[in-house]
Amino acid sequence: MNSHLLLEPVIIEMKRFEAELLEQRLPVLRGLGIECERFGGRSFVIRSVPAAEGSEQLAAHLQELAEIAAEDSTDWQDHLLIGLACRSALRRGRELGAGEQRTLLKALTSAAAPAVCPHGSPILLHYSRTFLIDKFDW
């Protein structure tokens, strides 16, 4: 997976047992586009994140994502992928240009479950013609 180099590397501090687990999982993180390495003691430096729309938003959540990656569970990768998807998602209120809107709708048509986000919240709603007429007095 392609990576997006951060303008400023992010240094995170982990608990000792988390640091040991995270270090074991660094190759998997690299495969996901997260360049992370030990920075002495319980610290790690993150230099890049997956190159995708919204990757600049991930920098604010790197500590939380590292903690997910250091979970002592068998499904930590699923939790991490869901976390990456959620934290890099478009946020309400962000304006999109016409090209971005087309790209988003095209990607949505090929999604496995286009009506819900990774957490199961609805992202598509159906409003009947009757509902619209009633609400907007057409």
From TrEMBL:
All copies of domain MutL C-terminal dimerisation, residue ranges: 2-96
GO molecular function, one term: ATP binding
Transmembrane portions of the chain: none
Annotated GO biological process: mismatch repair
Domain of life: Bacteria
Protein name according to UniProt: MutL C-terminal dimerisation domain-containing protein
Organism this protein belongs to: Dictyobacter vulcani
Source taxonomy: Bacteria, Bacillati, Chloroflexota, Ktedonobacteria, Ktedonobacterales
